[in-house]
Amino acid sequence: MHEDTKLAATSPRDAAWSDEPIAVDSEYADVAAEVFSLLSDVTRIRIILALRPGEMSVNDLAGAVGKSPTAVSQHLAKLRWGRIVRARHAGNRAFYSLVDEHAGHLVTEAVLQAQHVLGEGRDHRHGHARPAGS
């Protein structure tokens, strides 16, 4: 592999995400696209946001995202298939949690990007409100 095909970390934050650069021609790019496809639904984004603090039951998730338990269960099945969430069964109830922090980080970054696109939010690099017109 040529050195020019590697995507190097360009900031301290990027470096914290990975100890080594990820190649542009990484074999995981196709799988990453599938992850983004799974995350391209607003209900699934809301489910992941709701699960960031910890596990929740289907009924609690349904209340948090404003959908029926049946609809939430269907979305959870897709997220389980993608290995983004896992289920723990206790009696006749299922409790869901994120498999790891990665999906939570992706969704959080996407929401922060949406805030920037709309010109709202904070300057996340410095922790203070952005000046008007920036």
Characterization of this structure:
The radius of gyration is 18 Å and the shape is globular. The longest helix is centred in the last third of the chain and has 16 residues. Helix 4 packs across helix 5. A hairpin with a 4-residue loop joins strand 6 and strand 7. The chain is built from six helices and seven strands. The strands form three sheets. Strands 3-5-4 form a three-stranded antiparallel sheet. With about 130 residues, the protein is an alpha+beta fold. The protein has a single domain, classed as Arc Repressor Mutant, subunit A (Orthogonal Bundle). The protein starts with 5 loop residues before the first strand and ends in a 5-residue tail after the last strand.
Outline:
This protein is of the alpha+beta class and 134 residues long. Helices cover 47% and strands 16% of the residues.
